[in-house]
Write a structure and sequence with these properties.
About 70% of the residues lie in helices and about 0% in strands. It has 6 helices and 2 strands.
Length: about 180
């Protein structure tokens, strides 16, 4: 149960980071989530669960940053690969960034993910873990069902349209009115 809520928390935090980043760089794609309804970026949640499970006990901050950077980047590569191959969409493209690999990952963001994951493990996780552990099983079940329903409709939409911008309800509504 705690791992589900950890995934949700960091996916939501990742959505917030994506929105800030999009604003800062004036990104063309303003929709910065990966679900139709829920404001979540699952690559962040999956990456942090991997870091916490595999490197969370690391003593040194810099070792944790190194392991976190490697784990987060590996998750980012895998998630991008699956989005591209299974859904026919690209949520990000690092081809314009130095030292990218197949547009899926790049060195500058690997460094950023390493530092952010180490900070999250040291500063954020100790504070949120007790709160996440106290969430009731009923709330967890409701959240799981909501996530499953949103996942189902999101996958259907992306497989049919191959357009990530339709994940914004405003864009989806405009598209539906054109039909």
């Amino acid at each position: 149960m705690i791992w589900f809520w950890t995934f949700i928390f960091y996916s939501l935090a990742g959505y917030g980071l994506e929105k800030l980043y999009a604003f800062a760089v004036r990104a063309r794609h303003r929709v910065r989530k990966c679900f139709l309804l829920l404001p979540l970026c699952p690559v962040y949640g999956l990456a942090m669960v991997a870091v916490l499970r595999l490197a969370g006990d690391t003593e040194s901050f810099w070792q944790l940053a190194l392991y976190g950077g490697i784990l987060c980047t590996a998750v980012e590569y895998a998630v991008h690969f699956l989005y591209e191959k299974c859904l026919g969409v690209l949520f990000w493209d690092y081809s314009g960034t130095h030292l990218d690999l197949h547009r899926r990952i790049c060195f500058p963001f690997a460094v950023a993910w390493g530092l952010l994951s180490a900070l999250a493990v040291r500063l954020v996780q100790p504070r949120i873990a007790p709160v996440l552990a106290s969430i009731s099983p009923e709330a967890t079940l409701a959240a799981v069902l909501l996530l499953m329903a949103d996942s189902f409709f999101t996958v259907r939409l992306l497989r049919r349209s191959h357009n990530i911008d339709l994940l914004g309800l405003k864009n989806l509504w405009a598209e539906l009115h054109q039909i």
